[in-house]
Specification:
530 residues; Rossmann fold; Cytidine Deaminase, domain 2; 3 domains; six-stranded mixed β-sheet
């Protein structure tokens, strides 16, 4: 096995022609013979360089509308032949095949077509067959062949040639081979997921691959001793993966988690109906509000829990305007994300150099499905995204008293927020804003007491004559197993509750609500978030 290999022949066939002109000029300048297909060959000729068509190499024209071009022993034999192996050398000589030392291939843009919603028939035609086969062949034979599958690797490759007298070292080729196998694995994962979704059916696939493209190498993970990186999955769902960072320091692992949680939560409020703001700390909402304008929504959310909001993540469901930015600039916040950022707002916040400002380019649809993935020891869990939506016809009033229209509006809002709070989750809301949130507790009554304490602290901080829990409504992400939670809420002055129902003691829970004159609405749907 040789270490440094100087390429003499290169086969080049790419869909993404970014950086290709510079690469082929550099190769030709080093005397590398160029072989290519279709549009790639045309680009090489346009650079004034000599190129051999693959059809001349194989003796066969492109067939079946381009489906068959490179699937031929003249190609794969040249890629897979082991240099220095007498048997391989004899086979090449017997069939008139010459070795290929460099492969430059990137694949049909299947993932891009999938992300833009192409029709199934078009997607099938974007499934590359010859490209992955060549990449795998060259990567397998990395002892003798260099493989490039991404234009981002061209500069490093040319730098390697310059440093190694026109050749590549084995360690460098191994890195390129690893990148090629990762690329084909990600490509096949996207195709498999698409076909499985098209086929439907209740059974999960026997094998499942999760793939992504590196978006950012992070300084560290949750803690400084943990390595971490951020990958995009290519679905194009608006959020941290699509966002353009306009200013501020590099986003950390924790920033990304918190920002994702905030933006997904704020998307629960339709921007056509109201402006909304969600403030997140440690991946769970600490405050949320809806209002006529983003400024009003931010101020209402801020007042809901000023202590927790310090150094928090702010998400808006409408573009960030200048008047809202003026209010934001008065507070210490880590990240602000919105579907868009108006120029005046960006200019105003530019002086806050520590603030990370993100324009997501859109708002995620909370009703759009897709998988969520979490690791466990020795494996990972996959589930559908929680797209459960509250439908008016599904609500059932269990109490003797029905909620008023104002209570019902706050109940629905509190329910949407509770969906994004860690279980056990309790959300108190009043006049379109949260006034107390309890979450992540091991007993539901503990979450109730936490929410009530938060409300009392909010009232004290704002100088109110009493806790804003009085006259508020409450949402619970799951049923109340005992009446104790209702009794604590009633004692705090809460007037209405929304919860899934379904506990063995539902009758006792409802009786406690009736005894306090509370309205209770059942959804029949829970929103655990672990």
């Amino acid at each position: 096995m040789t270490d440094t290999v100087i390429p003499k022949r290169a086969l080049i066939s790419v869909s993404d022609k970014t950086g290709l002109a510079g690469l082929v000029r550099a190769l030709a300048g080093r005397g590398v013979e160029l072989i290519s297909t279709g549009g790639t060959a045309a680009l090489i000729r346009a650079e004034g360089l000599a190129v051999t068509e693959v059809s001349a190499l194989t003796g066969f024209p492109e067939m079946l509308g381009g489906r068959v071009k490179t699937l031929h022993p003249a190609v794969h034999g040249g890629l897979l032949a082991r240099r220095g192996d007498p048997g391989d050398a004899a086979a090449l000589a017997a069939h008139g095949i010459r070795p290929i030392d460099l492969l430059v291939v990137n694949l049909y843009p299947f993932e891009a077509a999938l992300a833009r919603g192409a029709a199934p028939a078009e997607l099938v035609e974007e499934i590359d067959v010859g490209g992955p086969a060549m990449l795998r062949a060259a990567a397998k034979n990395h002892a003798d062949v260099a493989v490039l599958c991404d234009p981002e690797d061209y500069p490093a490759f040319l730098g390697e040639l310059a440093a190694q007298g026109g050749g590549t070292r084995l360690a460098f080729r191994q890195r390129l081979a690893a990148a090629a196998f990762a690329r084909t694995a990600a490509y096949d994962a996207a195709i498999a997921a698409f076909l499985a979704a098209e086929a439907g059916g209740p059974a999960p696939p026997r094998r499942r691959a999760v793939a992504g493209t590196l978006a950012q190498a992070l300084r560290y993970g949750e803690n400084p001793h943990q390595a971490a990186a951020f990958y995009r999955d290519g679905t194009g769902r608006p959020g941290v993966a699509t966002a353009r960072q306009l200013q501020g320091k590099e986003l950390s692992y924790n920033n990304l988690l918190d920002t994702d949680a905030a933006f997904e939560a704020v998307a629960e409020v339709n921007p056509a109906e109201a402006a909304a703001c969600v403030i997140v700390k440690h991946a769970t909402p600490c405050a949320a509000a809806r209002a006529a304008t983003p400024r009003e929504a931010f101020l209402k959310a801020l007042d809901a829990d000023r202590t927790s909001a310090f150094g928090g993540i702010v998400a808006l469901n409408r573009p960030l305007d200048r008047v809202t930015a003026e209010e934001i600039a008065r507070h210490f916040l880590e990240v602000v994300i919105a579907p868009g950022i108006e120029a005046g707002a960006a200019a105003l916040l530019a002086r806050r150099e520590g603030l990370r400002l993100l324009s997501a380019g859109g708002l995620p649809d909370p009703r759009t499905g897709g998988p969520t993935v979490r690791s466990v020891a020795g494996g990972f869990l996959v589930q559908d995204r929680d797209t459960g939506d509250l439908r008016a016809e599904a609500l059932r009033v269990a109490s003797a008293r029905a909620p008023t229209a104002a209570e019902l509006a706050d109940l629905v809002f509190a329910w949407k927020v509770a969906k994004h709070v860690r279980s056990n989750a309790i959300v108190l809301a009043r006049e379109g804003a949260t006034v107390g949130i309890g979450g992540g507790q091991t007993a539901r009554v503990d979450a109730v007491e936490q929410a009530v304490r938060k409300a009392a602290a909010m009232g004290a901080a704002l100088g109110l004559p009493h806790s804003p829990a009085r006259g508020a409504v409450a949402a619970s992400d799951a049923f109340f197993p005992f009446p104790d939670g209702i009794e604590v809420l009633a004692a705090a002055g809460v007037t209405a509750v929304i919860q899934p129902g379904g506990a063995r003691r539902d009758a006792e829970v409802t009786a406690a609500a009736d005894a306090a004159g509370m309205a209770m609405v059942l959804t029949g749907m829970r929103h655990f978030r672990h």
